[in-house]
Design a protein that fits this description.
Helices cover 53% and strands 6% of the residues. By secondary structure, the chain is mainly alpha-helical. It has two domains: 3-186 and 305-334, HUPs (Rossmann fold); 213-300, Tyrosyl-Transfer RNA Synthetase. The protein has a three-stranded parallel beta sheet with strand order 1-2-3. Helix 2 packs across helix 11 (276-302) and helix 3 packs across helix 6. The two termini are 32 Å apart. The structure holds adenosine monophosphate (AMP) and tryptophan. Residues 8-9, 17-18, 21-22, 148-149, 151-152, 186-188, 197-200 line the site of adenosine monophosphate (AMP).
C-alpha cells in the first residue's frame, strides 16, 4: 500500500494557505487512498525564537484543527513529531549524508536567516539543519508521496537527493519520495502583500485568514485585500498578483483543485466578473462557508481534550511501529554496531 506523510508546524494559527495548499487534500483524498501519516511537527517550531507555553498550546490546537478539518483517526495516523524518537535518531544520520552547501542553498533558510539577522537576532543552528529533520520525518516511514504546498517542494527535492545518496553509499534503505502539489492554490499569497505567501507567523495578520477566524473577521480581511490599480478583472499572476490570488482562492473554494467536478479555474472565473467588489464579496462568502463546518467541529473537539490526547497517543504508537524498522535498518547500513 502506498505510504503518504506530511506535516504542519505549530508556529502560529493554521491559515487558509495551510488548508488549501495541504490539509484539504489530506482529508479529502490522501487518507482514503494510502497508509497516511500526518504529524504536528513541533520540533520544527523550535528553530526560531519561541515561547514554550505557546508551542504547547498551538500543538494541541493544530491537532484539534486537523481532526476538525476531517482527518479520521480510523483512517490515518495523526501524531506529534516529538512523541516519536525515530525522527531525531534518523536526522543525525542524514546530517552525515547531506552537505552544508545543500543546507545553505535552501530558500526558506536564506529568507528566514536574513530576516532574523536584519532584526539583530541570531540564527539557530537548527534553522539551517531543519530540512534534514524534515527529510528524516519523510524517509523514516518509507514514504512514497508528500502532499505539500509549493513552498515545501524544495525541501522534498532535497529529501530525494539525500535518499538517493544514502542508498547509493550504503545499499538500498529508503524509498525515494515525491512531492504532490494541489492544482490550484499551491501558494496562497498574503492578502495585504501578494508578493509573499500567506503565512502563520509573519506579516501583520491582516493579510492572513486563520481557520478559526470569525466570519466577520474573514469578510473584513478579504474585502480589504490589496488588488492592483487597473479596473478590469483578468487572471495574470505576474502583472496582477493580488487579483490572481483572489481568483485562485475562489476557484479553490469552489473545488477547482480536483475535488469539485467541473469547477471553473481562475481564468474562467475572471471572465465572469466586472468589478473587484463583486469578486471580493463572493470570495469572502466562499471562504466563510468553507470554514464554517470546520469551526463548529473544532469547538466540539476542543471541549473534549481527552479524546484528542487519545488520538495522539495511539497515533504515536502506530507511527513508532512503522518508523522503527526503517531507522534501525539505516543504523546498521551506515556501520553502527547493533546493541545486543
Ligand atoms: P507550515 O505552515 O509551513 O507548517 O506548512 C504546512 C503545510 O501548508 C505545508 O505543506 C505548506 O506547503 C502548506 N502551506 C503553508 N502556507 C501555504 C500557503 N500560503 N499556500 C499554500 N500552501 C501553504
Ligand atoms: N516543514 C514543513 C513546513 O514548514 C512541515 C513539515 C515538517 C513537513 N515535516 C514534514 C511537511 C514532512 C512534509 C513532510 O511546512
Amino acid at each position: 500500500m502506498k505510504r503518504i506523510f506530511s506535516g504542519v508546524k505549530p508556529t502560529g494559527h493554521l491559515t487558509l494557505g495551510n488548508y488549501l495548499g495541504a490539509v484539504r487534500r489530506w482529508v479529502e483524498v490522501d487518507q482514503h487512498r494510502a497508509d497516511a501519516l500526518f504529524s504536528v511537527a513541533d520540533l520544527h517550531a523550535l528553530t526560531v525564537e519561541h515561547d514554550p507555553a505557546r508551542v504547547r498550546r498551538l500543538s494541541r490546537q493544530a491537532a484539534t484543527l486537523l481532526l476538525a478539518a476531517g482527518l479520521d483517526a480510523e483512517r490515518c495516523t495523526l501524531f506529534v513529531q516529538s512523541h516519536v524518537d525515530e525522527h531525531t535518531r534518523l536526522s543525525y544520520l542524514l546530517e552525515c549524508t547531506a552537505t552544508d552547501g545543500e543546507m545553505r542553498r535552501m530558500i526558506q533558510y536564506r529568507e528566514k536567516a536574513a530576516r532574523e539577522r536584519a532584526r539583530g537576532g541570531s540564527v539557530r543552528l537548527s534553522l539551517l539543519t531543519y530540512p534534514v529533520l524534515m527529510a528524516a520525518d519523510i524517509l523514516a516511514y518509507g514514504t512514497d508521496e508528500v502532499p505539500v504546498g509549493d513552498d515545501q517542494a524544495q525541501h522534498v527535492e532535497l529529501t530525494r537527493d539525500v535518499a538517493v545518496r544514502f542508498n547509493r553509499r550504503y545499499g538500498h534503505t529508503f524509498t525515494v519520495p515525491r512531492a504532490t502539489l494541489p492544482a490550484v492554490a499551491a501558494r496562497v499569497m498574503d492578502l495585504q502583500d501578494p508578493s509573499s505567501k500567506m503565512g502563520k507567523s509573519h506579516g501583520s495578520g491582516a493579510g492572513a485568514v486563520c481557520l478559526l477566524d470569525e466570519p466577520d473577521v474573514v469578510r473584513r480581511k478579504v474585502m480589504r485585500a490589496v488588488t492592483d490599480g487597473a479596473p478590469d478583472v483578468v487572471y495574470d499572476r505576474e502583472a496582477r498578483p493580488g487579483l490572481a490570488n483572489l481568483l485562485e482562492l475562489l476557484a479553490a473554494c469552489q473545488g477547482a483543485d480536483g475535488s469539485g467536478e467541473g469547477a471553473a479555474g481562475p481564468e474562467a472565473l475572471a471572465a465572469a466578473y466586472r468589478s473587484y467588489g463583486d469578486l471580493k464579496r463572493d470570495v469572502a462568502e466562499a471562504v466563510v462557508e468553507l470554514l464554517r463546518p470546520l469551526r463548529a467541529r473544532h469547538a466540539e473537539l476542543a471541549a473534549d481534550p481527552g479524546y484528542v490526547d487519545g488520538v495522539l497517543r495511539r497515533g504515536a504508537e502506530r507511527a513508532r511501529e512503522r518508523a522503527r524498522p526503517v531507522v534501525d535498518r539505516a543504523y546498521r547500513a551506515v556501520g553502527l554496531l547493533p546493541a545486543v
